[in-house]
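Let's practice the habit of predicting before peeking. Look at the sequence and jot down your guess about where helices and strands might fall. Then scroll down.
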Amino acid sequence: MTKIVILTGAGISAESGLGTFRDEGGLWSQHKIEDVATPDGFSRDPDLVHRFYSARRQQAAQAVPNGAHAALARLERDWPGDVVIVTQNVDGLHEAGGAHRVLHMHGTLSGALCANCEHRWTAPPEMTPDTTCPACGAHTARPDVVWFGELPYHMDEILTHLEEADIFVSIGTSGQVYPAASFVQEARMQGAETIELNLEPSEISDAFTQRHYGPASEVVPQWVARLLPDPA
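Done guessing? Here is the structure:
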């Protein structure tokens, strides 16, 4: 049975209206990364960080999956082997599109985390510095997302999947954020076929044995169609 491990980044959700921190005019362009996506930024101004992530949470809640998300859900459902999706995205569009086996290495906008006792719960639409942890009662709630300088989630499990992969596919990533940018090398060391599906070549495109470029809603369904017969 051929195992497929898929890494997805912000590019797969761009056509659903969710921009990256490199897009002009979006939420990220209005703030410095160190102010809204680092532990130090949260310590300096938790109100700003909560307002920023509340806006992102509401934006993500209104987004709908596109053809790329649907194609990966179809692959997960119909592929005779194992399919694992590892995503850098904090939206829930993979699950909304029908996928079930998704590892969120950077957390999720829909989650809240207590910085005091590490309890996790479903985040309300808006969080503030006064949001109370339901477990310990402290006013130490934060978004359950991985900020710059923090360790991604599920890394041991992800590395095990990369060691077992027969095919590794990177979709909608810049190749600039580590450790995700190193996954292709991990998979290649185990002999996996490596494929990049992206709007344009990433910073690490030379590391892939196959490359296909264009909007995710086009290149991802086309790739899945080459692997699977037409649905009945």
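How did you do? Strands lie at 4-8, 83-87, 102-104, 107-114, 120-122, 141-145, 167-171, 193-198, 210-213.
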